[in-house]
Amino acid sequence: MPEIQRVLPKYMQIANHVRDQILRGDLGPGDEVPSERQIAVEWAVARPTAARALDALRQQGFVESRQGSGTYVRDRMRPNRLARERYSRARDTGKIYPANERAVILSADYDIAPAHVAEALGLTTGDQVVRRQRLIYADDAPVELSTAWYAGRMGGQAPNLLIRERIRAGTLAYVEQASGRQARYARDEMSSRLATSVERDVLRLPQPSAVMLVRHVVYDGEDRPLEFTEAVYPPERWAFESTYPVA
Question: Is 158 found in the same domain as 88?
């Protein structure tokens, strides 16, 4: 009989909370993280528990201690922002991107659905779809090329999808409001492949270069696909998924 998953220890919950702040950009490279004393007060835990949380973050490579100063996010911490981090940040802060990131919309138009896009959206190959592509910069360097796809009818319901300008509230939030469909959950699939010539040009990569590919599908409350996105990330950046108990 399946067992209910046990809750992570308190120190690991604290470490994961700080880790998530780092991954979504609330805490950037060089920023100071909460001290043992701050963690103990804010989380109502003993100092040894707070110390163990910070030690876990050090062991995982997220932070480093500086003698007589404090604990800081490592300067080499340059993670990819996955959709989960952006959703979380938008929910808590009202902003999708941290201060050092920006997005440029490269294209926004109708297109014909390739086979894999049609399959992801529950359409037929060759159906009309809305295709919206953006390039994301971090510290003025291109770090993500992503293409979002929607069923063709969404162009009538959410016409701003066809305008080559950023949707400040966030594309998914806008689609939800315009269509009346609420996003409930999402699924990410990750793989790697060689970059195409277009991807190399846009992401400023040499030839040949490997890239990470993330396929992201958002579903509504009736398990119907609402949005399908393909995001391509350059090498030497990474994505951290989760920390979980093994035993």
Answer: yes
pTM, two decimal places: 0.78
Q: Which DSSP string corresponds to 168-228?
A: TT-HHHHHHHHH---EEEEEEEEEEEEPPHHHHHHHT--SS-EEEEEEEEEEETTS-EEEE
Q: CA of 2: how far to CAs of 5, 50, 160, 170, 184, in Å?
A: 9, 33, 46, 38, 24
In a domain, 239, yes or no: no
- Enumerate residues 6+ apart whose C-beta is below 8 A from 4: none
- Which residue range is the domain that position 145 belongs to? 83-233
Q: What is the pLDDT of residues 95-130, one digit of tens each?
A: 788 888 899 999 999 999 999 999 999 999 999 999
Asked, for residue 221, whether it belongs to a domain, the answer is yes
Q: In terms of domains, do 45 and 151 share one?
A: no
Greatest alpha-carbon span in the chain: 63
Question: Same domain, yes or no, for 61 and 93?
Answer: no
